[in-house]
Write a structure and sequence with these properties.
Elements: E1 6-10, H1 17-28, E2 32-34, H2 35-43, H3 47-73, E3 77-80, H4 91-98, E4 100-105, H5 108-118, H6 131-149, E5 154-157, H7 162-171
Parallel strand pairs: 1-3, 1-4, 2-3, 4-5
Helix pairs in contact: 1-7, 2-3, 3-4, 5-6
């Protein structure tokens, strides 16, 4: 176990933050926290319902509060953040100063394939898109988010395994 460590996985929707995060947390002996699930629990609503009822701005405020709550209340964890989490308020600065930030960087075509196979209905900023416009939208979002994502301590380019990410973290 990496005691006292807070690790944040960042990246685009479909990059594997939640899926890889669970296995990686087990390998590292850390509690796994999914920021979106924590928001849903605290609000008793899905992310889609929150976006629909309150809009993105209200969601981002809830996201910030939950991020801060987790950082201050939990001694160690591995957190899967939302794709936009690093891009709002001072969230990226908060994460980089509170722990280790790992950016899962996958090609947009891989992200689109994963999202189409897994379903877009749970992703309020992407769920209205058709397959052909999904790649364009992901490219635009990635371009806007890269200045934030590239502030991560570790960048993992391409598809990888939890064991490989663990090794990179331990080398850091």
């Amino acid at each position: 176990m990496i005691s006292g460590t807070k690790i944040f996985l960042i990246g685009m929707p479909g990059s594997g933050k939640s899926t890889l995060g669970k296995s990686l947390a087990d390998l590292l002996g850390l509690e796994f926290v999914d920021l979106d699930h924590e928001i849903e629990k605290s609000c008793a609503s899905t992310i889609g319902e929150i976006f629909g009822a309150k809009g993105e701005e209200a969601f981002r405020e809830l996201e910030k509060k939950q991020l801060m709550k987790s950082i201050h209340q939990l001694p160690a964890f591995l957190m899967a953040t939302g794709g936009g989490t690093p891009c709002f308020f001072d969230n990226m600065e908060l994460m980089t100063s509170s722990g280790l930030v790992v950016f899962l960087n996958l090609p947009v075509e891989v992200l689109a394939h994963r999202l189409n196979n897994k379903g877009l209905e749970q992703r309020p900023l992407l769920n209205i898109l058709k397959e052909d416009s999904l790649v364009d939208e992901l490219m635009a979002k990635l371009k806007a988010r890269l200045p934030f994502y590239n502030q991560a301590h570790i960048v993992i380019d391409g598809e990888t395994t939890p064991s490989e990410i663990k090794k990179r973290i331990e080398e850091f």
